[in-house]
Amino acid sequence: MLDLTGKHALVTGIANNRSIAWGIAQQLHAAGADIGVTYLPDQRGRMEKKVRELTEPLSPSLFLPCNVQDEGQVRATFAAVQEKWGRLDVLIHCLAFAKRDDLTGDFSETSRDGFQTALDISAYSLVRLAQAAKSLMTEGGSMITLTYLGGARVVPNYNVMGIAKAALEMNVRYLAAELGPQKIRVNGISAGPIRTLASSAVGGILDMIHHVEEVAPLRRTVTQVEVGNAAAFLASDLASGITGQILYVDAGYEIMGM
Predict the structure, then answer these.
(1) Which residues bind NAD(+) (predicted)?
(2) The predicted structure's pLDDT at residue 135
(3) Which of 2, 75, 111, 243 could be disulfide-bonded to 185 (CB atoms 3.0-4.6 Å)?
(4) What is the pLDDT of residues 160-180, one digit of tens each?
(5) Strand 62-65 to strand 90-93: parallel, antiparallel, or no bridges (unpaired)?
(6) Which long-range contacts (CB under 8 A, 24 or more apart) does 41-46 make?
(7) Measured distance CA(128)–CA(98) in Å, rounded
(8) 20 carries a ligand binding annotation
(9) For residue range 178-225, what is the model confidence (pLDDT) as tens digits?
(10) pLDDT recorded at residue 98
(11) Residue 246: alpha-carbon gap to chain centroid
């Protein structure tokens, strides 16, 4: 029943084969979507090479550099989407960053620059991408972002990223309210802790995973593919009545009090 054939999906945030964005891209492709991929460019081109080789089995129609702090690259990305596809059906936002020093220690010691950087890349980027994507979603569409429980509750060694995720989750609600009349749905997935390149910056990530495995109702954490399945559902017509929501894909951990 889950069929994305004929849908055009732009996926941001793939860094390697552990990325949640990679799990999402795989499941969108498996459901029949035509995939476009963006990557974070670097001077030596290492990220481009790594992501290109990883995503080759998906035969992406678009493969584009996009640093969300570079306005020119954001404009070029969506100009390419318009030229290649003419429209966009699905936008996957898997972008987050905070300086390592601002993830540890006392939260009150967060630097102004670190605070601004985390909010810009991790939260405002969804607003900017939505701004660029909405005019291309001429037949309606689905925007999906990735968040974490640390945006709703205090999590050790998460600090400023928790603030960024809280802002991101409110972005989901405000964008859903704005874009609903255009038949554009906006939702977030709050995934349980998964060992990824991004999560490696969070101190004690393995301890967090082990804690979830002990406490969550399913007695385990989740995989990138499981998050990808949820994203494919939210991108599909099966979720046509769902918008402005944060869907927890965390083996049930979020419901536990202790």
Answers:
(1) 13, 19-20, 95, 165, 194-198
(2) 98
(3) 243
(4) 999 999 999 999 999 999 999
(5) unpaired
(6) 41/65, 41/67, 41/73
(7) 18
(8) yes
(9) 999 999 999 999 999 886 555 455 556 788 889 999 999 999 999 999
(10) 94
(11) 12
Known binding residue 92? Answer is: no
Look at residues 23, 244, 240, 18 and name the one whose alpha carbon lies nearest to residue 144.
Answer: 244
pTM over 0.90, yes/no: yes
Contact 222, 163 (CB under 8 A): no
- How far the first Cα of the chain sits from its last, in Å, is 37
103-112 pLDDT, tens digit per residue, is: 989 999 999 9
Rounded to the nearest integer, the mean pLDDT of the chain is 95
Q: Which residues are the active-site residues?
A: 148, 158
Cα 152-155-161 angle, rounded to 5 deg: 70
205 is in an annotated binding site: no
Looking at the chain, list the stretches that DSSP marks H as alpha helix, in order from N- to C-terminal side: 20-30, 46-55, 71-84, 112-119, 125-133, 160-179, 205-215, 224-235
Q: Provide the pLDDT for residue 202.
A: 57
State yes or no: 194 annotated in a binding site: yes
Domains of the chain from N-terminus onward: 8-253 (3.40.50.720)
Given this model, what pLDDT does residue 258 score?
82
The predicted model gives 111-118 an average pLDDT of 97
What's the rounded Cα separation, in Å, for the pair 103 and 254? 22
Rounded CA gap, 113 and 115, in Å?
A: 5
* 198 among annotated binding-site residues: yes
Burial of residue 53 (number of CB atoms within 10 Å: 0-12, 13-18, 19+): exposed
Q: What is the rounded distance in angstroms from the CA atom of residue 134 to the CA atom of residue 151?
A: 25
Q: 225 with 27: CB under 8 angstroms?
A: yes
pLDDT tens, 45-70?
899 999 999 999 999 999 999 999 99
Contact predicate 77/66, CB 8 Å: yes
